[in-house]
Amino acid sequence: MYDITLIPGDGIGLEVTESMKKVVETAGVEINWEEMIAGEKVIDKYKTPLPEYVIESIKKNKIAIKGPITTPVGKGFRSVNVALRKELNLYANVRPIKSFDGIKSRYSDIDFTIIRENTEDLYAGIEHKIGDYAGESIKLITRDASERIVDFACKYTKDNDYKRLSCVHKANIMKISDGLFLKVFDEICNKNGITRDGEDIYCDDVIVDAAAMNLVLNPELFNVLVMPNLYGDILSDLGAGLVGGLGIIPSANIGKDYAIFEAVHGSAPQIAGKGIANPTAIIQSAVMMLRYIGEHKAAILIENGLKKIFKEGKVITVDLGGNASTKEFTDELCRIIKNSI
Ligand code: NAI
To answer: Fewest C-beta in 10 Å: which of 125, 130, 181, 227?
Structure first.
């Protein structure tokens, strides 16, 4: 029995996390979900969308899975996601991009992962005005943060039996900041036994603009891509677009002590409460979480169930062109999983 913090979140969050819980239970993993309310519902009471008790629960359990949280526009709250990342030092954002047979998208057979440094670069918030005629944002790249993200990427590449690890950068122009990232990349890859001329596993580097073009032209040539924050933010959404959009893509924010798994999509207020949301993204996030805690058998069961349901194409949610409700999709997925146990 695992203790895991569950933040259902706002909008469709409740519907998709209910579905996810049922699927994980069907796959045979017993979890004591510690449900924590954050987001819109608690703002009036606690004057923040992220009360301290939510952070305390994650610090206690070490692992959390969360639904989307509405970011109130213009009310001055910092984004819950950014706050959690900072508070828990979740330095690695991991986004696997995989295509499913049966989901209409530009490509089939895509399987790569973007690993984005989550704590610095232009997102460090070092900004200032220069009078009223200029604004300046500082791009900060440190050796420590670069070392730990590249080390994480090396281990991820090996653990998942990928062949190629690519560093995405713009060191030809930003010779000092991205130059340091690239230099550290080679050092840490070497320490992990991954070299540029390796046979079974190798590393290389790609300039970010060329990476954007090649991800669109030949995405199947990539395996694992590691990069500073800003490039990761942009290319991970590009990746989602290659395989059918944000509705199916999972992600993980991982640090030394804690990990939070979450769907990439938002709270979709237009369809909230209608029972038609697609729970695939949060279910795939749960698959990542199960792998993280070592429940590989259950992870494979769920992943194969998803492959089957999409390939058959009979019980598909509205966003992917079908007419199944969240409940019908969940029940069918659970039936497939039960049959394969
Ligand atoms: P969104 O992802 O909620 O919606 C974009 C479009 O995709 C809408 O048409 C929506 O109906 C559809 N969609 C999204 N997820 C779906 C699902 N699982 N099944 C079926 N259709 C789905 O993005 P939007 O509208 O920009 O943001 C809405 C709210 O969510 C905002 O308050 C935003 O701040 C918040 N948000 C929260 C995130 C998080 O907590 N991780 C991430 C992105 C947005």
So the answer is: 130
Which residues, at least 6 apart from 332, have a Cβ–Cβ distance to it below 8 Å? 309, 314, 315, 324
Determine contact, residues 84/253, Cβ cutoff 8 Å. Answer: yes
Q: Which of 70, 95, 88, 93 is nearest to 80 (CA)?
A: 70
Same domain? For 179 and 254 the reply is: no
Q: Tokens at residue 298, please?
A: 């259950």
> Where would I find the H helices in 175-272?
177-191, 208-217, 229-242
Q: Which atom of ligand 1 is nearest to the CA of 71?
A: 34
- Choose one of 243, 259, 289: the last residue of a domain: 243
For 302-311, the pLDDT digits (tens) are 999 999 999 9
| Full residue range of the structural domain in which residue 333 is found | 1-91+250-341
Give the torsion sign (CA, 49, 51, 55, 58).
negative
In the numeric block, which tokens belong to residue 332? 């069918």
Task: Note the pLDDT tens digit of each residue in 38-75.
Answer: 988 898 899 888 999 999 999 999 999 999 998 776 66
From 190, 210, 243, give the residue that closes a domain.
243
Which is the catalytic residue, given 101, 144, 209, 257? 209
Residue among 16, 267, 283 to mutate when testing ligand 1 (max atoms within 8 A of CB): 267
Nearest to 154 by CA among 219, 202, 212: 202
Beta carbons within 8 Å of 191's beta carbon, 6+ residues apart = 151
**Strand 202-207 relative to strand 111-117: parallel, antiparallel, unpaired?**
unpaired
Cβ proximity of 286 and 261 under 8 Å:
yes
pTM value is 0.94
